[in-house]
Design goal:
- This protein is of the alpha+beta class.
- It has a single domain, classed as Phenol Hydroxylase P2 Protein, CATH 3.90.56.
- Helices cover about 20% and strands about 45% of the residues.
- It contains three helices and seven strands.
- It has a four-stranded antiparallel sheet.
- The longest helix is centred in the N-terminal third of the chain and has 8 residues.
- It is globular, with a radius of gyration of 11 Å.
Length: about 80
């Protein structure tokens, strides 16, 4: 299971909302974090979130041991299974 953790603060809710629009993705909570999970890849388009670059590049709190960030640039955040 590929898992991405995002701190639960107002600035990051757009990232979580866009991730949750993917039917293959499940969004839950773990403590102070959103837990975004998928059996496959997790892909979030930055422009769809409307996030400014500073928020975008600081939104990742962690990645589960079965995933790896393969893209985190001005266009998208992609976490793939290992």
């Amino acid at each position: 299971m590929t898992t991405l953790y995002v701190l639960d603060v107002p600035e990051n809710t757009a990232v979580v909302k866009i991730a949750d629009e993917d039917p293959e993705v499940t969004v839950g909570r773990r403590g102070w974090y959103f837990e975004i999970s998928s059996a496959g890849s997790i892909v979030v388009d930055r422009r769809a979130t409307g996030c400014r670059h500073a928020v975008w590049y600081s939104c990742v709190a962690g990645v589960g041991r079965d995933g790896r960030i393969t893209q985190h640039d001005k266009n998208a955040l992609r976490v793939d299974p290992v």
